[in-house]
Design goal:
It contains 10 helices and 9 strands. It has helices at 25-34, 48-55, 75-87, 102-112, 125-142, 154-165, 216-223, 228-248, 266-281, 291-296, and strands at residues 12-19, 38-40, 62-66, 91-99, 145-148, 174-181, 192-195, 253-260, 286-290.
């Protein structure tokens, strides 16, 4: 079932991109601009509706960033604004919140040496992040889609937005498939985690040790495991029901993560296989990434 926002695809598309400072709003706006959106940042709240009115005639999709740092920002006013825009019949509103785990935001600000917008009075960055999260909570609850960028690179975020807004008319649910190493910790953005360490490990084969799950020899090795056919078959059967439920409930994004010991062989192969299966057997947009392989390159 589609949401009221998705039913308005034939009207002018307006994307409001908001979220935590450091979660990737600038990158997201550039990605939308690459997709043909008219991108406007740093606008005061009282100027947003006049902007939409002035450009309504040309029908060009519009992307607007709303950050807590803009003058006169108010979470209640943002929620009211989104409510008014959803009630309009001449536009289709898509409200997206970019979220990120606090430790990752801390690291990003430490590495970039940028000042957090909530630390103007000299408080530590950690406290500024807490302040902003509390301020934005009503906005996060009011949006139609949340994207957690904690484990995403700039490229991953661009790919996610391209997958969502680069294909008009596709269902609202976007499926992200990824692989990871349990040694490096669980991915914070994962909704469904599949442990595939029960499959035999190509790492112990000298000829396969330095290869990855993207190599056909590793794929053949894993497929020869008697456990693989029922494991993958049961997985896709259950996931089909889960996807239908998430889509019916209006969920915007779903991340399925496969984990193995090193994040190089089994999890990579299973992620590749599931992404291929989803593209062949469902109509959902699919993105694919390999966390540990991306880090190594």
């Amino acid at each position: 079932m589609t949401s009221p926002e998705q039913d308005k695809e034939s009207y002018r598309k307006v994307v409001i991109l908001t979220g935590m400072s450091g979660a990737g709003i600038t990158t997201g706006m550039r990605a939308l601009e690459d997709l043909g959106f008219e991108a406007v940042s740093g606008l005061r709240l009282d100027l947003i509706e006049p902007l939409i009115e002035n450009g309504a005639a040309d029908g060009k999709p519009l992307a607007i960033s709303l950050e807590a740092r803009v003058p006169g920002f108010s979470a209640d006013r943002v929620v009211d604004l989104m409510k008014r825009l959803r009630e309009r019949r001449d536009i289709g509103l898509h409200a997206v919140f970019l979220d990120c785990q606090d430790p990752v935001l801390m690291r990003r600000y430490t590495e970039s040496r940028r000042r957090h917008p909530m630390t103007a009075d000299g408080v530590p960055v950690a406290e500024g992040i807490v302040r902003e999260r509390d301020l934005l909570e009503p906005v996060r609850e009011a949006v139609s889609r949340t994207i957690n960028t904690s484990t995403m690179s700039c490229h991953d975020l661009r790919g996610s937005l391209h997958g969502i807004y680069g294909h008009p008319g596709v269902p609202g649910l976007h499926v992200h498939v990824m692989s990871f190493s349990y040694r490096q910790g669980l991915p914070g953005s994962a909704d469904i985690v599949r442990d595939v360490r029960s499959l035999r490990n190509p790492f112990w084969d000298p000829e396969l040790k330095k290869l990855t799950g993207q190599d056909s020899r590793v794929a053949d090795y894993v497929k020869e495991d008697a456990l693989y056919p029922p494991l993958f078959g049961n997985m896709t059967s259950i996931l089909t029901l889960e996807l239908e439920r998430f889509d019916r409930d209006g969920r915007g994004d779903l991340t399925v993560a496969f984990g193995c010991t090193g994040g190089q062989h089994r999890s990579v192969f299973l992620a590749e296989e599931l992404a291929r299966w989803l593209r062949q057997n469902t109509q959902y947009p699919v993105s694919l990434r390999h966390r540990e392989l991306d880090r190594a390159n």
